[in-house]
Design goal:
- With 71 residues, this protein is of the alpha+beta class.
- Strands 4-3-2-1-5 form a 5-stranded antiparallel sheet, with no helix packed on it.
- The chain starts with a helix and ends with a strand.
- The model has no long low-confidence stretch (mean pLDDT 83).
């Protein structure tokens, strides 16, 4: 049913939000020229990231994809 699909998408997006924490290094694959960013805060699905080339961006993690960089 549509409701089950919606709940699944909601659950997946919540898990994605919880995947980041302050201090994590990330990139935005759709804007690689932004460079590496460091997560500053996560509030209600909005991730504030300080990118090396474009400075601070507030990202809606439900719309814009971030990839965590692992050491």
């Amino acid at each position: 049913s549509y409701l089950m699909i919606f709940i699944s998408i909601l659950t997946i997006s919540k898990l994605m939000i919880l995947d980041f924490e302050p201090g994590d290094k990330v990139t935005n694959p759709d804007n690689k020229d932004w460079g590496t960013g460091q997560v500053q805060s996560i509030i209600n699905g909005k991730v504030t990231v300080n990118f090396e080339n474009v400075g601070k961006k507030v990202i809606n993690s439900e719309i814009i994809r971030l990839e965590k960089l692992y050491k």
